[in-house]
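Q: Could you fold this chain for me?
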Amino acid sequence: MASEANANQGPILFWCGVAVAEFGAIQPGFGYPWRPSAYAAAALLVACGLITVKAADYLRTEEARQRLRLGSYLAGALLVAHQFSSTAYVTDLSRAGSLILYTMAAVMAVWSHQLSHATRPTLLIATGLDAAALRERLAGTPDTVAVYRTERATDELRDLEARYGLILVEGAEHDPRAKERLSASGLSRQIPDIAERDVVVAGPRQFKRYVRGALSRLAVPRSQIHFKSRQKV
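A: Sure. Below is the predicted structure, expressed as structure tokens.
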């Protein structure tokens, strides 16, 4: 996905900007010409961006990855601010240009962070909805995946299954097979990326309570879970 690629490029780009600002715009510290230790320090700063990207791959939820990226940006910004505060003036044109490059890198990194957050796909888990409303929701938001429990699969629901990939869960409210498919293990099996989606849950109170428990066991962040009435879906 393009948004995922942008999110991965953000920390690397940002820390490249930190390296430029640290050793070109503000205070080389190691003197001109640069010594090997200066190049090693710059490479270490760039490596911070690579480490951030790699560490994010081991986090389960997108919210945790976002927090890691923001923490990385804050650390780099504080490092540059600390060095800048010890320099009274930026008089050299090359230093000013390097500082501008750092600012551009910071802006682009934060922009990529927000873009990734804005393009999060949606999962709808519902029961008791009007088929027409369900069709309108699926047709209007192409990135939505829907899991729908019904006691009987009608021709219209079968059409939604074929056309939009609707996941039908057939069975009564207390049917063990239907409950298993709506459990934590069932949902994770059917929707492997569930922790990275905004989840909308619609249905009776007991249905919402059961699904909420499953989402909690899957460690889906509360900020990504939204409970709606059947009329508002």
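A (continued): Confidence is low (pLDDT under 50) at residues 25-31.
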